[in-house]
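Operator note (shift B, R.M.): manual run for Protein NDNF requested after the automated queue skipped it. Running by hand, logging everything below so the morning shift can see what happened. Input copied straight from the record, untouched. If output looks odd, do not overwrite the archive copy; leave it for review.
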Amino acid sequence: LKMSWFWFYLPLHLLMVACFCHSIKAPTTSSQQSFKTDLFNFYHSLILADGKETTIHLLKDIPKRYYFILEEGRALAPFTITVTPCDVPIEWSILVHKASASFLGKAARGDHDTQEVSKSQKAPSMVSTIFNYKGNSVETYMGMSSHSALYMLEFLSTERDTHITVYLTTDTTSGHLYPELPMDPRIDVTGIGHTTVTLTWKHSPSVLQHRENIQYCLLVNEKHNYKSLCAAETAIRSSGMKLPPTLALSLSPYLLEPQQVMILSNSELSIINKASSGEVRQICMGTRNTYTVPNLSPSTQYYFDIFVVNLLTNASAAYTGTFARTLEEPEPKVTELKDGKVIQVVLDGKKQKFYSLQYQARHKKIQFTFQLCRGQVRVHITKNGKTVASENISGLRYFSLKGKLLDTYLVQLRSTEESNSSVKVQVSPYFQKPLFPLLPESLKIKSFSKLRTCNSVTIAWLGTQEESKYCVYKKRIEDDQVWMELRSADRCSGPESRHKSEKVLCKYFYDINLQRAVTTETIKGLDAGTLYLFDVYLFGPSGIPVRYHSKVVKTRKKC
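Run finished. Output pasted below as returned.
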């Protein structure tokens, strides 16, 4: 800091010159007056405000200096300075120039005369460093100021351009801008699960005194802890995410960016910022000092920071951050498949987990059969650890595979929708007659618009070369029920789930010539201008039904 002495004296002497020029009574030109005004305003802007948080932007390797003096007549008054780095570590120091603060105070206000300037220039002075710090932690200096001293704060960033906040106060009686931290500001981890972590912390004294204006907010991320709220905001923005002005801590209804998700429930605000670098969650939970963080990923390390926030000023104080690793996800249960046995699996769409089935081959050639009952399902089959099939299935799907005796097959099923899906699965030797019926080329039901009347509808569907039983069912529905009926239909359920009054007829038919394997049926006794849902069930030799795709038809209103 040897060079800093020169830079400290220079502004001080220039400030005296500015004040001296201001006291001259002789007439001046407009350019001289402009110079004096600019010089006075420049140094006046470097006076650090008392009782106000100031944001300061720093350019790399360029020091920035601010000054403060006491009001006249205040001797040995206490003061505090809090500096909050909002990104990289910085260097900052406090220097004191013991000179006439009486003159300097008037210089800043402009109420001085030439005689005082002369006295001040003759007075002895001394500059000394009373505090210096390097790092990225929030640091507070508390001291006693003298009426005969001018203070300078010098800030320097050597890594990159950044910004900081500085708070100076000489009033220790009107409360604190920043909420207070407890004597022990640590966050305790009291519970760890596969997808949850429970945290608890000691109450801030500010919460106990001003409960309506103070709240706790939690920041969760997978990178590291943050020592201040502005540091967290800066890091999140630099990763490509945009935040509301104060990290949404004031519960204001800010408009969110597309990569943000806001969740408000039970007086608790959560904002999830999504970016390629990961996910950052902000959760404000009022004045509760315990919280269970939900929806975490198993076997993942998370960092947790608690901030106590003043809702009136948005000033905050950070607890000492902590971290925890969620438990490893337990190995999924594997269900054994047996030859010829049909099982139905229900898949949780919200968790998006795989359901595993295992089969040890007793024949060289085998066949897997999948019948999709509801939703959308992804099937992945491996043989001795190597993938042999992987695709989304619809309707009825067969996979014929060839291998060796005692090959181990693993079938993994997953819902590709957020809603639950279900599927029937069967494995059997390839030569064994399948339990599921032989299917036609299409499972669609066709209706003939020209054959519709006020009380009848004609439908048609395809058959196969194998004689099979077909049963037709009808159901009267309303306009607003169509989507739900089609969406929720269980294509694996048989007529046993239907009401007896919905049955129309059952019939057998087949045709060796597939071009002629089609049948029609006219359903009579319907109401005019009414929507009906028609279903056709196909039964094979084993009695397992396959449901055609439902068809909605409306009878004519006038005939």
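Quick read of the result: The first strand starts at residue 52 and ends at 58. Residues 1-29, 34-44, 100-123, 242-267 have pLDDT under 50 and may be disordered.
Leaving this for review. - R.M.
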